[in-house]
Structure formats: structure tokens, C-alpha cells
Amino acid sequence: MKGISIKVATVSAFSLALLVSTTIVSAEATVMEARKDIRQASQQERKGIREENRNERIGIRKDARENIKNIRSSSSTRDVKKDEIKKIRDEKRDELRANGSSTRSELKDSREKMISALKENTEKMKADIKAKREALQAKFKAEKAVRKEKLTKEKQVRVLDRMNNIYTRLSERVKNLTEADAKIADRISKLNAAGVSTTAVQALYSTAQTALATAKVDIEATKSLATEQASASSTSKDQLMSLVKKAEASMKTAGEAYKKTLDALKPLAKPVTATSTSN
């Protein structure tokens, strides 16, 4: 009965880890969908602004043509007509300029609103992932103290040594990607400051960040289960190795996502470099 209770406890912990990991991935998917909706709404808003601007400019030009036509058909002298026509053209030119300035301001406000919404969305995603990861770690930490007494020291040390090697290797890869993340963020910021469009790169970057966050969760779940699985049956150990493979697969996905982001950044680097040199 004692052996059975140990097995049930470890399998239950394994199931909990998978459940929390799945919940996090689902939450990330929801957040990414929200980001897509934010971008689409912003695009529609800017499209409406441009359409309204176009209609207003058409109306201004049409009004100018009608006024000039009426002046030319009036009984005024040629010089008077010329002055009136010039006045109309000057007024309409000023209206067109004011219209263009107003439109640019509205487009800028719309873009800033979208950027602010995306930033808020990103912060929410990070906070949610952190909270769920901490909840998972707290759960395993509380149960670890109870289950640890049921493990034999010999098996515990053997499993922990193996898992520590795996965890160290994966953590090193996480560290490398985290450093790459910081460089990419800095590069995108500089490109944006230089007026270079980074919309496509930011989409790839967001995907890479999500993949890295998922990999971190999988790695932490693997580490938390290491001690718990130390004296489990062969079946439970197979389940642990399955979780290790999942963490390694997540890291591979994250690495490939960051590589795509870096590849997309390369063509954008030359304009920024040229500008810096000329200064």
C-alpha cells in the first residue's frame, strides 16, 4: 500500500504539471488572439481616417471648382474675377493643408493608441505567465516536503544528478535566448526610432517571446518533478522523460523562433547603420 500511495502521488503531481502547463499555453493563445484583434481594429480605424480625409479633400476641391465657375460666369470685371479666383484658391489650399495636418495627427494618435494597447497586452501576458508559474512552483514545493521522505537517498541522488544536468543544459539555453531577446528588443527600439517599419519583425519577436515563456514553464515543471519521481516505478520515470522531451522540444521551438526574428532583422540593419555613420 505504501508503494502504491507513492506512485499515485507522483502521477497526480505529473498530471497537475501538465494541466498547469496546458492552461498557460491556452492563456497565451488567448492573449495572442487579443493582440491580433487590437491590430485589426487599429488598421480599420486608420483606414476610416484615410477614407474620411479623401472624401473631405474631394469636397474641398469640388467646392473650389464650383466657386470659380460661378465667379467666371458673373458680370464682374476681369481683374475682379482674377482676384476673387485667387482668393478662393488660396482659401481652399489652406483648407487642404489643414485637412492633411489633421489627418496625420489622427493617424499618429491611432498608432500610439495601438502601441499602448499592445504594450498593456504584453505586460498582462507576462504577469499571467509569472503568476501561473509561481503557483505551480509553490504547489510542488509544498508537496515536495511530504513526498521527499518516501524516497530513498540512493535513488534520489541518482535521479537528481541526472535531472540537474538536464536542467543546467536547458537553463543555459534559456540564458542564451534571454540575452538574444534583450538585443533584439534594443535593435527594434533603435529601428523604430530611426523610422524603420518593424511590424513584421515585431510579430515574429512576439511569437518567439511566447515560445520562450512556454519553454521556461516546461523546464520548471521538469525540475519540480525530478525529486518527486526519484523512486517511482519505471512507468512514472517514463512519464518524467516524456516531460523532459517536451521541455527540449519547447526550447527547440523557441530557438527556431528567435532565429527567424534575427533573420528578419538583418535586412533592416543597413539603413540604421548608414544613418549612424552619416551623423
Q: What labels describe this entry?
A:
disordered C terminus, rod-shaped, 279 residues, disordered N terminus, 92% helix, mainly alpha, 5 helices
Number of strands: 0
Q: How many structural domains?
A: 1
How far is the N terminus from the C terminus?
77 Å
Amount of beta strand = under 5%
Helix-residue proportion: over 70%
Averaged pLDDT, please? Answer: 78
**Main β-sheet, in a few words?**
none
- String of helices and strands: HHHHH
What is the helix tally?
5
Short description:
The chain is mainly alpha-helical and 279 residues long.
Task: Explain what you see.
The structure is a single chain. The protein is mainly alpha-helical and 279 residues long. It has one domain (2-270). The chain has five helices and no strands. It has helices at 2-72, 78-148, 153-193, 199-228, 234-278. The chain is rod-shaped, with a radius of gyration of 31 Å.
Task: Please render the helix and strand layout as text.
Layout: H1 2-72, H2 78-148, H3 153-193, H4 199-228, H5 234-278
Helix pairs in contact: 1-2, 1-4, 1-5, 2-4, 3-4, 3-5, 4-5
